Amino acid sequence: MVRVGVTGGIGSGKTAFCNILKKHGAYVLNADDLAKKIMAEDPAVKEELVDTFGRDSYKKDGRLNREYLAEQAFQNDRVEELNNIVHPRIPLKTEEIMEKAEQAGYEVFVYEAALLLQNLRPNHLDYIILLLADKEKRIGRVQQRDKVNKELVVDRMEHQQDFSTLKHLADIVIENNGSLQELEEKAERIYYDILTG
C-alpha cells in the first residue's frame, strides 16, 4: 500500500483534492476529523480539555462544543494549547487506521493534514503532496465554504505556517489556482503515477 500525505494552507484545496483521490479508490483519512473524533471519544482528552478550556468545551448532552473551542483557540491565541492536548494521540491512531486500510485491500492511503510538515517530513509516508494557491483565491474559497467574513479567514491564515516555504519537503507541488476540473485532471494523473510508481 502506498502511503501519501497531502498538505497545504486553509483554502488551498486539500480536501477537494483528497475527495478526487477517494473517488479513484484511495482510503482518505482527514487529520481534523480524526482530532475531532479523539476529542469527542477519548476520556483522558475530554478531561484535559475541560481542565484547560473549561466546562463549555462540551455541550450539556456531552457532545464536543466545536464552536467554543475554535473561538478559544483562534481568537484567544491558544491554538498551541489545544494542539498539545490532541496531537500526541494522533500518530498511534493513524497507524491503527492505516493497518486496517491495508488489511482491507486499499492500494493507496491518503493522510490529509495541515500540520503534516510542521516538524519536517514524516518518515512513514512514501509521498508528500503540497497544495498551494494565491492568497485571494484561498480567502474566497474559505468565505464561500464557511460563510464567514474575510477578517476571520485572514486571522486563521495568519495562525498557519507559510506553506510556500515547504516546497523542498514535498515530492509533488500543485499550484491550485484554476478550476475544480483542472484539479481533477491533476489529481487523476498523480493518482495513477503513484499507483504505477
UniProtKB/TrEMBL annotation:
GO terms for biological process: coenzyme A biosynthetic process. SUPFAM superfamilies: P-loop containing nucleoside triphosphate hydrolases (SSF52540). Keywords: ATP-binding, Coenzyme A biosynthesis, Cytoplasm, Kinase, Nucleotide-binding, Transferase. Pfam families: CoaE. InterPro entries: Depp_CoAkinase, P-loop_NTPase. One of its GO terms (cellular component) is cytoplasm. It catalyses: 3'-dephospho-CoA + ATP = ADP + CoA + H(+). Its EC number is 2.7.1.24. Belongs to the CoaE family. Catalyzes the phosphorylation of the 3'-hydroxyl group of dephosphocoenzyme A to form coenzyme A. This is Dephospho-CoA kinase.
